[in-house]
Amino acid sequence: MKNIRLTFAYDGTDFQGYQRQPVGRTVQGALESVISRVTNGPITLYGAGRTDSGVHAAGQVANFRTGTRLTTAEMHSAFNALLPVDIAVHRVEEVPETFHARFSARARRYEYRIRNTLCRDVFSQRFELHHPKPLDRDAMIRGCHCLMGERDFASFRASGDSSAHSVRRMIDAGGRNEGEVLILFFEANAFLQHMIRIIVGTLLIVGRGNMTVRDFEKIIDARDRAAAGPTAPPHGLCLTNVRYSD
Question: Which of 52, 161, 215, 221 is the catalytic position?
Answer without folding.
Answer: 52
